[in-house]
Amino acid sequence: MKIVILGAGNLAWHLAPFLRKNGHEIVAVYSRTKFSAVALANKVKAIPIDKIEDIPSNADIYIVALQDKAVRSVLKSLKFIPNCIAHTSGSVSISVFPKQFKNTGVFYPLQTFSKTRKVNLNEVPFLLESSNLKTKKILSSLANSISTNVHFITSDKRKKIHLAAVFANNFVNHLYSIASEILKESKLPFDLLKPLIIETAGKILEDSPEKMQTGPARRNDQEIIKSHLQLLKGQKNRKAIYSLLNSSIIDRCKVEAK
Q1: What is the spatial distance between Cα 107 and Cα 63, in angstroms, rounded to a whole number?
Q2: Is the pTM of this model over 0.70?
């Protein structure tokens, strides 16, 4: 397929080369930042574009890989009606597309992306949604050409999945950051926690997170919890996070025990 990528951020940086590797032609890469457009376009032998009016109108599909807040305004700025167009957002509804666009959809890869880390898109779940049968066939063909994990999901369900992903990824990563800061304050390396982190992640591949829960809150060990809170004295945000998470774990364990 001939594809135009709108966006040159972390997701586009991985998706565009992988699409090209699997036999698709990246016609152009659009970014409002010329440097970003050129950097990604050079990787996939495409035309870099930094003005919306210069986006070519003859591609088979347009993939909008932009920040959620930019999707609507960019779509409204397009000067033509695309043959087929899909956005990659987990939380933006398919209804975001202008009414005159007939073949619209969602092409959402459920993964975290950073430019400095390789991601095997063959194993990434692609959650798709389409406005009609024609778009469904196009998106299905495209997704199945790069991934073995393809699903059609409604906007409402995709939003729930995105919410769950924020808990499982973004919030957990923030907790890693807090843990790292706590150790740095005592001149201790974060590497000490890495075997623990790897084992914790490994456990949930074998059984449910609920069954794998351990720690003082799981045991309702108030002495340890109080000692931890004492260590967090004067650290308002950390103390609030610690207390809230402990309360959540304790409440869940009470329900499970009934």
Answers
A1: 8
A2: yes
Nearest residue to 107 via CA among 64, 66, 46: 64
Using alpha carbons only, give the angle 133, 137, 143 rounded to the nearest 5 degrees: 140
Residue by residue, pLDDT tens for the chain (258 residues) are 999 999 999 999 999 999 999 999 999 999 999 999 999 999 999 999 999 999 999 999 999 999 999 999 999 999 999 999 999 999 999 999 999 999 999 999 999 999 999 999 999 999 999 999 999 999 999 999 999 999 999 999 999 999 999 999 999 999 999 999 999 999 999 999 999 999 999 999 999 999 999 999 999 999 999 999 999 999 999 999 999 999 999 998 887 766
User: Tokens 């990528």 identify what position?
Assistant: 5
Give, for 151, the enclosing helix (H) or strand (E).
strand 150-152
DSSP three-state, residue 62: strand
Tokens of 241: 């996070």
β-pairing, 2-6 with 61-64? Answer: parallel
- Separate counts of helices (H) and strands (E) for the chain: 11, 8
Q: Which of 36, 34, 45, 32 is nearest to 12 (CA)?
A: 36
CA distances from 136 to 5, 115, 188 (A): 19, 29, 52
Residue 27, SS3? strand
Residue 95: phi, psi to the nearest 5?
-75, -5
Q: Which two tokens stand for residue 242?
A: 């610690």
C-alpha torsion 63→93→11→7, nearest 10: 50
